[in-house]
Amino acid sequence: GTDVNGCVDTDQLTVIVNSLPYVMATTTSNVVCAGDEVTLTGMGAESYVWDNDVTDGEAFIPATTATYTVTGTDVNGCEDTYEVTVTVNSIPDVVAYTVLNEVCEGSLVTLTGSGAESYVWDNGVTDGVAFTITTTTTFTVTGTDVNGCEDTDQLTITVNPLPDVVANTTANEVCEGNDVTLTGSGAESYVWDNSVTDGVAFIPTATATYTVTGTDVNGCIDTDMITVIVNSLPYVMATTTA
Q1: 123-153 tens-digit pLDDT
Q2: How many of the other CB atoms lie within 10 Å of CB of 194?
Q3: Mean pLDDT score, 176-202
C-alpha cells in the first residue's frame, strides 16, 4: 500500500479453501413394492438433510417412484449433494378362482390364481391341480409378479355332506310272481336301476340286487343297495288211486 507521501508498506493474509465433502447415500433398496419401507442414509459429511420430507436413517414408505436428494454438510460448513432414485412397483391384483364355491363331500375341486406370475396356496393346495375336499375350508393364495411383488386373495369352499340314502323294500324275499315295492329314504329324489320306479310295485322275475341313487336339496348324491330274493314256486302235482 502507498500513502500520500509515497511511502510503501505491505501485509499478507491467507485464504483457506476447504474441499467440498464427498457426499454419498445408501438405500436399503432401490426397487421396492408399493407399501414396503425403505431407508435412505447419507455418507461422507457430518449432517444430512433430505428433500421430500425424508429423515436421514429413518424408514418410510414411498408412495411412487421418486428421486431423493440429500444435502450433506461437513465440519467446515461446506455442502454437497447426492441423489438416489427409488422405484416403486405396484402390487399385482391377485384373484383366487374356482368353478364352484359349493360342492358335495368328496368332490374334486381345482383352485387357480390369476393376476400374477406364480401362486402359492395354503392347506397343501397346488395351483391348478384338482384335489378332493372333505370339509368347508377357506383357502388363501399368494401371487407373486415378475417384480417379486406379492398380493393375496381368499375364497371359501362350502362342502355339503352326502345324504344318508337307504334302500327299503316291502319284502326281502318273495315268491315268484309276487310283487314288491322298493323305496329310497334320506334324500329328496331317488333313481333305481333295473327299470325300477321308486315307490311303485313291480314283479321281480329273479333274485337281484337293486341300487338306488338318492339326491338331496344340495344336489349331493349317495347310493344304497338291497337284494330281493325270488323263490321259485313249487312244482305241484297230484295223483289219484283210480
Answers
A1: 999 999 999 999 999 999 999 999 999 999 9
A2: 11
A3: 97
pLDDT (tens digit, 9 = 90+) per residue, 207-217? 999 999 999 99
Whole-model pTM: value is 0.77
CB burial readout 122-132, b (16+ within 10 A) else e? eeebebeeeee
- Distance between CA atoms of residues 105 and 68, nearest Å: 57
Which grid coordinates belong to 186? Answer: 334320506
Cell of 24: 454419498
68-92: burial string, b at 16+ Cβ within 10 Å, e else: bebbbbbeeebebebebebebbebb
Identify the three-state secondary structure at position 10.
coil
The Cα–Cα gap between 188 and 169 comes to 18
